[in-house]
Amino acid sequence: MIDTFVALETGVWEALVSGDGVADAALLSEDFLGVYETGFSNRTAHAAMLDDGPIVVTYRIENARLRIIGDKAALLSYLACYTTPADPDNEERMYVSSLWEETDGQWLNTFSQDTNAA
What is the per-residue pLDDT across 84-103, written as a single tens digit (0 to 9) for each? Predict the structure, then answer.
């Protein structure tokens, strides 16, 4: 079951790599809430990060853990290791928790929080 949610999360990361804001927004609920060190973000702001193109060059999802919240909700937490176009030689790391909820047969990311790894 964890593979299903890692695959969904991978879709978000692939949108960040390709710079595809439409693909990114398609995976987020209309009421998406992101909590980041820069503050809160909604679906529109999350997708707008890609207006100028890709923001990630490479990524790995490591040490994924899944908590089933209910019949139609699951929390995926993991360590993300990634590089950015601004500094492709420096791998950054952060812990991510993403809440995925099923609505009308479609799984959407409704909440995500990133924490920089020490």
Answer: 999 999 999 999 999 999 99
